[in-house]
Amino acid sequence: MRLILLALSLLLALPASAATPELLASLDALHARRSEEAAIKEQEETLKKELQAAPEDYELLWRQARLLVWQADGASDARQKKVLGKQAWDVCERGVKLAPQRVECQYFAAGGIGTYSQAVGIMKALKDGLEGKFNERLDAAIKIDPTFDMGAPWLAKGRYHYELPWPKRDLGESAKLYEKALAKFPNNLRANYYLAETLLADDEAKKAREAILKVKQGNVAYDPPEGRRVQEWAKKVEADIEEELK
């Protein structure tokens, strides 16, 4: 009886969603095709329309942030990355207020802060106090569910340890987190890509080559847009590794 009451209390604590299951399924299907310009445009238009009608709908908010983080992650222009990252961060701050116990907006808020920090420069981000805000959201996501989106919170924390300047940088901890994700999700190409970069930076070029080959030869079926993006990025890292091994 106590377990039943606990389950009921958790359900009652979830924010009500005006979005229908069919709408959410449609948005998720569009997200699975996010490498297509038409799918991105339709997702943007649908989210804009639905959020105008229901601006505090958690299910819509985190899906909007998911799209913004994807776009920021792939942006080559620093100004665009900064704008998209800030938008994702702002959207998910609203979501965290609605449902702090849910992993999605904790994680995508951290993703927005992370891409914003990359755009403005890590040293400026540290000076502006963004490290604490990033870790607050990311650590909450890890506590709630580190396996979300194939271990994405672990990967973000590993990348944090990789991107920090000396003496804060911790390549050993970075690699441990990627390996933790890979132990549960061995097909995660981004985990191997990040691991390869970390190993290369840690003077482990031979091990880095093993990791990048897993990206190059990996199956993208688990998430084709993500897999293809990472495989494209991996080409430069592979070249850097081969140069180091000469």
TrEMBL record:
<protein>
    <submittedName>
        <fullName>Tetratricopeptide repeat protein</fullName>
    </submittedName>
</protein>
<dbReference type="InterPro" id="IPR011990">
    <property type="entry name" value="TPR-like_helical_dom_sf"/>
</dbReference>
<keyword id="KW-0732">Signal</keyword>
<dbReference type="Pfam" id="PF14559">
    <property type="entry name" value="TPR_19"/>
</dbReference>
<feature type="signal peptide">
    <location>
        <begin position="1"/>
        <end position="18"/>
    </location>
</feature>
